[in-house]
Amino acid sequence: MTTNGFDFHCHVDLFPNPEALIAQCDRDRIMTLAVTTTPKAWEQNRLWTEHSRCVLPAVGLHPELVGQRYAEIALLEDIMAETPFVGEIGLDGSAKYRNTLSTQKDVFSRALRSAQRLGARILSIHSRGAAREVLALLSEHTTSDRVLPILHWFSGSVELAAEAVQVGCYFSINHRMLDSRTGIAVTRRVPADRLLTETDAPFIKINQRTSEPQDVSATIARLAELRNVSIDEMKHIVASNAERVLSFARVSIPTAGR
Ligand code: MN
Fold first, then answer.
1. Ligand 1 center to 88 CA (angstroms)
2. How confident is the model at residue 205, as a pLDDT?
3. Which residues are found with C-beta within 5 Å of the ion, ligand 1?
4. Would you state the pLDDT for residue 258?
């Protein structure tokens, strides 16, 4: 089996029919990281993806929910022992959630310390309005030999993106990120070997319809244009980055005959 693309941040469990979406990812051979927003969603996510070749289940605790779900950090830490994939976690410093930022930092720090202790953990990180704080906590609690951070839909500055590269971060780029001037500037300047694709589906609309993992191919085309390489070359770049990321978690991409 050869893969047709990589969606490193998709809320599979928030689609009306997750099982149909998983079957579609398998059919279309799109490797998809199924993130969750509460650790209580883990068990169902794990069961749904148990027989999937292309969809990998992650456990998360979304920063926007930390205000109400602070106590679920213990469950998150427990489940992190079972899976190398952690997301969605992070910080949200936007106006609506800033009031819970200190609790968010506490929860995120605990998740980072667990990831560091366990090792071989891949994180899909939300950093809206708090990129500086996310990078500070990553530097404080993790090292790049044990934890691989992926900044999902990064909306910070080019300068902060450069700092993130120093901390070992990858960037998963979605369709909407490339509608923003800063998103484009970041995408053009980060090293090619840190670029990944995602959709954040079903939260993003593309031409009035809900996005889905297959939409990563449109993002590959935009990335190719922005980075001035061919579409085939961009596919190859993202595929080799994805392979490196997954091998960090000791997961291999399914190949022919398996
Ligand atoms: Mn998300």
1. 6
2. 85
3. 88, 200
4. 39
